[in-house]
Amino acid sequence: MTLRRRWGYYGFRPLTIGEILFFGGFTLLVGFVEETVYRGLILRTMLIKGTAVAAIVSSALFAITHLLNALSGQSMAETVLQIFYALLVGCSLALLWVKNRNILPLIAFHFIHNLIQFLSVDRESIPADIVILVILAAQCAWLVVSMRKPSAASAMPPVAAGGRTP
To answer: Across the strands, what pairs with 5?
Structure first.
């Protein structure tokens, strides 16, 4: 049995329930493991060297591991593009973790992103990938700038017991 809408698949290829469950479980596992390793362990460990170093190192290691996709038959051009993509996604997720200190949204994003990649019909759209790379680079730049500005909450003086400022 395949899932199919009356007007097509809405950008996704036809799948059986078993395939949906497999890809769902697989991408959830990948998202959990990769975020736990790269943001949960490597990034947090590297933070003693500074936010920039931690974000760059964890993102670079995350990107380099995507070289393994060339072993699965992926072309070198696609692999290089994926490495840049993974570097920017890794940087963005690293900065989001530093900003929010919560790994669960990162796991959710990683899971949903990978699931869409696995299930979509057009997985090799270079122009779309370039647009996404530009958006990710802009997001990384915005995160860096926003992290440098003190937030309104951090700029406020501490409140003493009883609600009065010292």
So the answer is: 8
Q: What are phi and psi of 137, to 5 degrees?
A: -65, -40
Q: What amino acid occupies position 65?
A: T
Is-contact 126 81, C-beta < 8 A? yes
- 57 lies in a domain? yes
With beta carbons less than 8 A apart as the criterion, state whether 110 and 31 touch. Answer: yes
Percentage of the chain beyond pLDDT 70 is: 75
Q: What is the per-residue pLDDT for 39?
A: 96
* Count of structural domains within the chain: 1
Distance CA 156, CA 154 (A): 6
Classify residue 129: in a domain, yes or no: yes
Provide the residue range defining the domain that includes 69: 17-147
> pTM to 2 decimals?
0.73
* Contact yes or no for 46/85 (Cβ under 8 A): no
